[in-house]
Write a structure and sequence with these properties.
The complex is a heterodimer of chains A (463) and B (396).
Chain A lengths: L2 H11 L5 H8 L3 H11 L21 H7 L2 H28 L3 H11 L9 H14 L4 H8 L3 H6 L13 H11 L7 H10 L3 E3 L5 E3 L9 E3 L2 E3 L3 H10 L1 H16 L5 H14 L2 H10 L16 H11 L2 E3 L2 H11 L21 H15 L16 H10 L6 E3 L1 H8 L4 H8 L6 H9 L5 H8 L9
Antiparallel strand pairs in A: 1-2, 3-4, 5-6
Chain B lengths: L2 H13 L5 H5 L12 E7 L9 E2 L4 H6 L10 E3 L5 E3 L3 H8 L3 E8 L7 H10 L11 H9 L6 E3 L16 E2 L3 H8 L2 H8 L9 H24 L12 H14 L6 E6 L8 H25 L6 E7 L19 E6 L7 E2 L19 E2 H12 L4 H5 L10
Classes of the chains: A mainly alpha (463), B alpha/beta (396).
Chain lengths: 463, 396
């Protein structure tokens, strides 16, 4: 398989590869390389923090907690839990940079921005994150049904408050508008009827789903032209009967994995594939095996998300963060903090990652991570912060990122490469002609330096 | 010629132009004539407790709902028969006395959302509460009427949604020297020095180069222009006052930016509210008072409108922790020299008629405030920016 095509495949199914990895794959065929990507992603390994410190309060109701702790203690415990969500953020990024199950992890990231959710409860959000991971390459139908029962989702979109005498339409609306069909492909009446079908859906203290039968509306519902005593699962089945659902998800897949500009013919082609069985693996395998996926028009044209940028650098030079807060800082400055989406519609991706400020920051990122560059920009404070804390974040942070860089590993694999070889490894996009001549004019003294320089040109922002 | 004399002359010169109403019909034509109008937006981030800010001190319901949290009558600067300022707002009351302040009560939107994130999105994008927009209303304003990112500046190091347009974004900086420095690294300079226009046609790559060039030229323009004026007024020593001081330096150096956005944090007062809130109001009003003085001194106050809002108000009833929880409708402040309706714009909040969460019900849609500012102050077509026509108010 051609080097450029291998790199393209690995950038879209993962976060890029280093030179040694590339050499290993060079002699292999496309079908073999694609098959290996699926094999290594076969195993599902949950991401789990050590939460034993919360054993005493785990899954307890407010009332049970109040019997045991003072209000102040409860507030502190809540804060500690929220701190754990930040730890999960770091652990997730580490997983992305280090896991061999690259496709499963990449898809997990993708689904997290389809089924967008946010929760301060560490037990529930960790569970949610693993549900995404578990179903990332599986049966989409099953996936949606499980997501609809997740406690974090139930909280986030108020499905827990959705009861027969007073239906709450939030979940039903977003299920159709954002998770499955897209705006304009259902009626307001459909939302009302679907909301009834989800009434009484709730969860136990441990997060497991159960139906509060007394709150469920057992009356007949009329949904997408069908009439019956539908429950939530039935509603999901009927939604999936609509080909629009397959098309909606495939449009997202197309923009994320193939090209931000959608080719209608190709979109219809993959929609047909997905609609057949809603099997996510089959869809992705079809795309990666197709010929057109490797056409020049699709290579190096996607603006990397902040996470892709961050993880991609680490695939070439492994970096670990001595201060977790600095990892959050980087994500904040670039506008994508994992587990903290801005709202249920998720990150818009593409050009929306780029404004004057983020671009300057992104182009400086490799120097910050790898070259001890100084940074004098502050992250935004949080809504919950007090005045002092809101503005104080700068003082807590040193002007350098405290990272440990594994240059040894980079050297072992890339020390002796010619400039052209390193360039071809790191840059997939067409390079601007003036930038090419600029790169050629550079005196390359060490590949470490040249690597940072390559990662600082605008073309490195693309994959 | 002294700089200030020059400034006076140039504003005089521009006011000689008479703009007939029909010119307004031609979008993009009239705007240059009004380019000296500035808008400064301040968000009290976290949800300011409007009821303890402008206090309904003769309303028993207020005292009943807040046995521990109500402001005692002797700590209120009584202003009308019903309403008074929190004593920490004395500087704001000064502005009120000079006729520079208009307070609009009960501003909000239908089906209010009580999440900071979501409600801030709604206020910043000017959306309905069940609608998700990816651009901010100021961003859409510069999409249409700004030619450069510096048309709208956020006083921070990263850009909020309010400043993001569909095709053009504002720029964020709280220190123009730092912003400039970040575009002046040797590597940046070399890359752009060699650029021809050819690459700009490439889709995403072209967009990156274009953004780089704009960032660099905006940073240079902001830095070089703003350094011609250094404020010598005595601003309080805190980061919020610093943001306003920098804003004043931008405006007083004649920077060709139209909108400034400043966020002041700390208003999420769920517990032990009284002392904290009192300090916040003091910090806010003291800084704003100096800011106004600074603008006035340079004859720019008459061309500057300052809007202060918060993503929501707080619950009428106090909570068990000596604080208040997230609420709904709230008051907003408009500060300017030639306000049409000075003082209180409308009725005090109705504390008996609450929504199902026991929160204040809005009587004025916040987008009517935006529409009025866009139409009457910035003189642009408000409906195309807000995606809908909203009735106008009468404050300017």
């Amino acid at each position: 398989m051609k080097q450029k095509h291998i790199l393209h495949l690995h950038w879209r199914s993962g976060f890029g590869i280093d030179y040694k990895e590339l050499l290993k794959l060079k002699s292999k065929s496309k079908s073999k390389i694609v098959a290996e990507i699926f094999e290594t992603s076969n195993d599902y390994k949950p991401l789990e923090l050590d939460l034993s410190e919360f054993d005493d309060i785990k899954f307890k109701t407010i009332r049970e907690l109040k019997n045991k702790f003072t209000d102040q203690e409860i507030r502190n415990l809540r804060k500690q839990q929220q701190q754990k969500v930040r730890e999960l953020n770091s652990a997730w990024l580490k997983r992305l940079a280090e896991s061999n199950a690259i496709l499963r992890e990449k898809m997990t990231l993708f689904w997290a921005n389809v089924f967008v959710c946010r929760d301060n409860n560490i037990f529930f959000i960790q569970r949610y994150n693993n549900t995404l991971r578990k179903h990332a390459l599986g049966d989409f139908r099953q996936f949606v049904k499980v997501i609809a029962k997740e406690p974090s989702m139930s909280k986030y979109l108020n499905n827990k408050q959705n009861i027969k005498i007073k239906p709450n339409e939030n979940f039903a609306r977003e299920l159709m508008e954002l998770f499955t069909l897209g705006v304009g492909n259902y009626t307001e009446q459909d939302i009302k009827e679907a909301a009834k079908a989800f009434t009484g859906w709730s969860f136990k203290n441990n997060g497991d789903y159960y139906l509060r039968e007394k709150q469920h509306d057992y009356a007949e519902k009329r949904f997408f032209g069908k009439t019956g005593n539908f429950n939530g699962d039935d509603i999901i089945d009927i939604i999936l009967e609509q080909k629009q659902c397959a098309k909606y998800i495939c449009t997202k897949v197309y923009k994320y994995f193939i090209n931000p500009i959608v080719d209608k013919k190709r979109l219809n082609e993959i929609t047909d594939v997905f609609y057949k069985d809603y099997n996510i693996s089959n869809l992705m395998s079809y795309i990666f095996k197709s010929k057109w996926f490797y056409e020049d028009v699709n290579i190096g044209v996607k603006i990397k998300s902040p996470v892709e940028l961050l993880v991609g650098i680490q695939k070439i030079v492994p970096v670990s963060f001595d201060k977790k807060q600095q990892l959050i800082y980087l994500q904040k400055m670039m506008g994508q903090v994992l587990l903290y989406p801005d709202n249920v519609s998720g990150w818009q991706g593409g050009k929306s990652w780029i404004d004057s400020n983020t671009l300057m920051f992104r182009m400086k990122l490799s120097a910050l991570l790898l070259n001890n560059a100084i940074i004098d920009l502050d992250e935004k404070g949080d809504f919950e912060d007090t005045f002092d804390k809101y503005y104080k974040k700068v003082k807590q942070r040193s002007k350098y990122l405290k990272t440990t860089k594994n240059w040894g590993q980079f050297d072992a694999k890339h020390k002796d490469l010619y400039p052209k070889e390193l360039t071809d490894l790191l840059i997939l996009s067409k390079i601007d002609t003036d930038t090419v001549s600029f790169l050629e004019s550079l005196q390359v003294k060490s590949n470490r330096n040249f690597c940072i320089q390559l990662m600082s040109i605008p073309e490195y922002q693309l994959c | 010629m002294e700089r200030r004399d020059f400034l006076k002359q140039s504003t005089l010169a521009s006011s000689l132009f008479f703009v007939p109403n029909f010119v307004k019909a031609f979008e993009n034509v009239s705007k240059d004539t009004f380019k000296h109008k500035k808008l400064v937006i301040i968000q009290l981030s976290g949800g300011n407790d409007g009821l303890n800010t402008i206090v309904p001190y003769t309303n028993d319901v207020y005292f009943r709902n807040r046995p521990k949290l109500s402001i005692p009558k002797n700590k209120i600067i009584k202003t009308t028969d019903e309403l008074g300022f929190h004593e920490s707002l004395a500087p704001l009351k000064n502005l009120y006395d000079q006729g520079y302040l208009s307070i609009i009560n009960n501003v909000g939107y239908p089906n209010p959302n009580r999440s900071h994130f979501r409600s801030t999105d709604i206020w910043q994008t000017a959306s309905n509460s069940d609608e998700y927009l990816n651009s901010g209303w100021v961003g859409r304003f510069i999409d249409k009427y700004g030619k450069n990112p510096y048309a709208a500046i956020e006083l921070d190091d990263s850009l909020s949604l309010i400043m993001k347009g569909e095709n053009m974004n504002g720029i964020a900086t709280k220190n123009p020297r730092v912003l400039f420095g970040n575009t002046q690294t040797p590597f940046f300079n070399k890359i752009l020095k060699q650029q021809t226009e050819a690459h700009l046609s490439e889709h995403n790559l072209g967009y990156l180069y274009k953004t780089m060039i704009e960032a660099k030229s905006s940073a240079k323009y902001i830095y070089e222009t703003s350094k011609t004026y250094k404020s010598n007024l005595d601003y309080p020593n805190n980061p919020f006052a610093k943001q306003l001081k920098t804003t004043a330096e931008f405006i007083n150096s004649d920077l060709d930016s139209k909108v400034y956005y400043v966020s002041m944090g700390g208003f999420d007062t769920h517990a032990n509210q009284n002392i904290k809130h009192s300090k916040l109001l003091k910090t806010y009003s003291e800084a704003v008072e100096v800011f106004v003085k600074d603008l006035k001194k340079n004859d720019n106050f008459k061309d500057t409108l300052i809007l202060t809002f918060s993503e929501f108000g707080r619950r009428v009833q106090q909570n068990a922790a000596g604080g208040t929880d997230h609420g709904a409708a709230n008051n907003i402040f408009l500060i300017g020299e030639n306000l049409k309706k000075k003082g209180f714009y409308n009725d005090a909040p109705d504390l008996l008629n609450l929504d199902k969460n026991r929160d204040l019900i809005h009587t004025i849609d916040f987008r009517s405030v935006y529409a009025t500012i866009l139409d009457r102050w910035l003189q642009v077509d408000d409906a195309s920016i807000l995606n809908k026509s909203f009735s106008k108010l009468d404050f300017i």
